[in-house]
Amino acid sequence: MEQYEIIYDSQHFRLRCNGHIINLTAQAFLFHSDKESLAIENNSSLLTSPTATEMDYWRQKGPLGKLHNLVVYIQRSPQRIAKFREFSNNRNLARDNSTRWNSWYMMISTAVQLKSALELFCLYYKEVQLDVLSERDWEDLVKLQSFLLYFYDAMLSTESRRATIDRVLPTMDFLLEQFEAGKILYKDDKYMSPCCNSG
């Protein structure tokens, strides 16, 4: 650069990680409160059983929090994993994770595919009754899954060497358009409307 006498401040002009920005937007969409830092809380006790307080906290997040509690409950015990695999034809649920982008989308998608197995599991293990997902909860999860697919596609379209400015800017415009359309589509939806506004 110096040989061409170009002044370039790399720190000022650097392109932020698009995947990280998309992930932050997805987190804002899913958890629309300023005081929530779920990415940290989500992984603070991976090797210990969640406390009743932690489970109550997640339960307050609606269907997404209840699904989180169910997945954590299943995955914290080899016996429960085996029982779930018995109900699901040897399939596992994906787990939300702060270090893996799109993990909420993957968790919801696998849960929707394995809905019958989850319902059987909840009948078998009575202690999870507070986290049993109602039909309305499942409907909300399907809506979240559909919307999070935009984030998943945007992430894939701009990962690795494809994260050039000519791909990043249209991707951001695309996501913004989805939010604007979502605000109209879900304007009367008590669950999705705040998500779209926050995102």
Fold and architecture overview:
The protein is mostly helical and 199 residues long. The protein has one domain (2-198). Helices cover 62% and strands 0% of the residues. It has helices at residues 10-13, 18-30, 38-41, 52-59, 63-75, 78-87, 103-113, 115-124, 135-157, 165-185, 192-198. Helix 10 runs antiparallel to helix 11. The relative contact order is 0.14.
Task: Give the helix/strand layout.
Layout: H1 10-13, H2 18-30, H3 38-41, H4 52-59, H5 63-75, H6 78-87, H7 103-113, H8 115-124, H9 135-157, H10 165-185, H11 192-198
Number of helices: 11
User: Quick one: overall form?
Assistant: elongated
Radius of gyration: 20 Å
Largest sheet: none
* Contiguous uncertain segments of 5+ residues: 34-47
Q: How confident overall, as mean pLDDT?
A: 85
Oligomer designation: single chain
Q: What's the total number of strands?
A: 0
Strand content: under 5%
Distance between the termini: 39 Å
Order of SSEs: HHHHHHHHHHH
Helix content: 55-70%
Structural class: mainly alpha
Q: Estimate nothing, just give the exact number of structural domains.
A: 1
Q: Notable features of this structure?
A:
199 residues; mainly alpha; 62% helix
Summed up:
The protein is mainly alpha-helical and 199 residues long.
